[in-house]
Specification:
Shape: globular
Distance between the termini: 37 Å
Order of helices and strands: HHEEEEEEHEEEE
Number of helices: 3
Strand content: 25-35%
Structural class: alpha+beta
Oligomer: single chain
Largest sheet: 4 strands, antiparallel
Strand order of the largest sheet: 1-3-4-8
Helix content: 10-25%
């Protein structure tokens, strides 16, 4: 059972609150090549128009997105906001995942597979779940907006060092990580 949106917001706020002091005071994030060299930048932010992956009209056409990924020493927090979605789709939930590949208009396959921490670290068989991947399903509201946040128990790599995009799929994410066709993509560019 998923926690209520209010409870989820409280959990995410607590996680961010716990991670930010670590980020702010840990010398690992100084430019000394220590752990920072392994983790990359402690924060990834991508903001802009979604790249259209589907030739058919859909609820993401003309939409914008913003994602922020904050890396701690043992986990990461991701927060996603989408705006400009089709308000006629209010109440519809779509799966949104961090992928390894890049956004290429009209070519959903270019975004590659989901980033999976087990696969990235050589753990086989790889578990496919919200514990090993970044899943950010959103439900479109009456104003054409959607919001999701998650806390994962692993350090998400920096853009370009293992992740390349955030993909919006056509259906909610099922227990096996499937969410249907790829509608749109938000590029994650190395900083």
């Amino acid at each position: 059972m998923r926690p209520s949106p209010v409870r989820r917001s409280m959990i995410i706020a607590a996680a961010i609150g716990a991670l930010l002091p670590v980020l702010a005071t840990t010398p690992a994030y100084a430019d000394d090549g220590g752990i920072a060299g392994l983790l990359g930048d402690p924060v990834t932010v991508a903001d802009g128009a979604l790249t259209d992956l589907s030739p058919a009209a859909d609820l993401t056409d003309g939409a914008d997105g913003r994602i922020m990924i904050i890396r701690g020493l043992v986990g990461s927090v991701a927060e996603l906001r989408l705006t400009g979605l089709d308000p006629a789709a209010a109440g519809h939930t779509v799966g949104v995942h961090v992928h390894t590949g890049r956004c290429v208009a009209g070519a959903g396959a270019a975004a590659g597979p989901h980033y999976n921490h087990d696969r990235a670290t050589g753990r086989e068989p790889a578990e496919i779940s919200a514990r090993t991947e970044v899943w950010l399903d959103i439900t479109v509201d009456e104003h054409g907006r959607g919001h999701a946040s998650t806390l994962v128990p692993f350090v998400v790599p920096s853009a370009g060092a293992g992740i390349g995009s955030v993909v919006v799929h056509e259906h909610p994410t099922d227990h096996g990580g499937m969410a249907g066709g790829r509608l749109a993509c938000l590029p994650l560019e190395p900083s």
